[in-house]
Amino acid sequence: MASDIRPVTQAEAKEYLRVLPYVNGFPQEEPEPSAWYAGSAAWPPQVPKSADELERDAQELLTDWFRPQAAFVDGKIAGASAIVSVQVTVPGGQQVALGGVTSTAVVPTYRRRGLLRKIMSAMLDDCRERGEFLAGLSASEATIYGRYGFSPATFQHRWEVRRTDVAFRSEFADPGSLDLVDGAEAAKAWPVLHEQMRAERVGEISPLPGKWDGLAGGGLPADGSGPAHHLLHHDATGAVDGAAIFRLPWSPDPEQAGVLQVEAIEALTSDAYRALWGLLLDFDLTKRVVAARRPVDEPLRWMLTNPRALKLTRTRDNLWLRVLDVRRALEARTYAATDSLVLDVSDDLYGAGRWRLDAAPDGAVCTAVNAEPDLSLSVNELGSLYLGGVRASELSYAGRIVERTPGAVSRLDALLRPDRAPHNAVGF
């Protein structure tokens, strides 16, 4: 079996696409309700692409932001993946380049032959050559990507609340206004709002081209959850400072009827946040609200007289990170304290190294050293720690960080402590 890993050409685009689950109709998500999906059923499989759809997608495949790689076995494509060029906001507010791994699959008859490892190595090498010192992905199956240095860095909640259980702790006079709008108006507002949000939210991803184009066209989703409704909040000056997308699916089952599904909600101010939730949690002729893609430090719970009214139904890892250049990654972010630690970081793909991190609230210097380490960890743990969403003490207790100098784990926690939990509302 002769195998080769390389980028695909335009002539090979259709063959490349046929390998991918969202094209061929094979499962692409675990068969249970997800934290990023507000429906009651498992995420439905995609219908296989028609010949016309395949032709159209093939013509649009090769762009400057989508970099597909394929595994060729005896001249035939047996596996595929791609890197998308995006940005992620890191502590301190800098938006850095991220190689986003997506559209990954191996043809079932070619599994267990090491093809995925070869594809992943080729793509990570490509990221390093382009100067991307971080790679990221959203894992459809949690047991696969740790082998290549990835580890969960952000998490999402899915929660629900009975409308009759909701009462806010205090009265609220909204200085702005709420408006139900059509998809075309929402499609204009969301890109501007998201750019403002990601400038200040650690972990947020820049949207792929055309992210909100579908809002203007309307249409029904594949899972039958009904059309999207769009809500905008304007501040006292008339500027949009919040938005929500929700659905009201019909169901013949009384247990599933009257459910309002919140697909997305963003707010720049606490006034906009309170106003949006105030309406969504008290929408006429509904009995239950289910919200997906929610941050793990959702402040709504603390606005309610009964915090138990908000019940978590799913927590799931979202963005997995892979550090490709330790020095550049650690120097790109800021820190919550001033300290110096020596980290021994192992990496199965790119080799181990010891790094002295001289960190401060205004930045850091990271230097390769030959000194006794304060902490030993792998590049996987570094990926989870990087945005501040996972504590070093948690990983140490789990046996994944070795403390060489007493107190070093607590010192690292103090350095990496975020103001808010990292969160990314959009993916790739």
Automatic annotation (TrEMBL):
Pfam families: Acetyltransf_17, Acetyltransf_9, SCP2_2. The active site is at Y145 (proton donor), F428 (proton acceptor). The keyword Repeat does not apply. PROSITE patterns: GNAT (PS51186). It comes from the Bacteria. Acetyl-CoA binds at R112, R113, G114, L115, L116, R117, S140, E141. Gene3D superfamilies: 3.40.630.30, SCP2 sterol-binding domain. Keywords: Acyltransferase, Transferase. Residues 3-175 form the N-acetyltransferase domain. Belongs to the acetyltransferase Eis family. Homohexamer; trimer of dimers. This is Acetyltransferase.
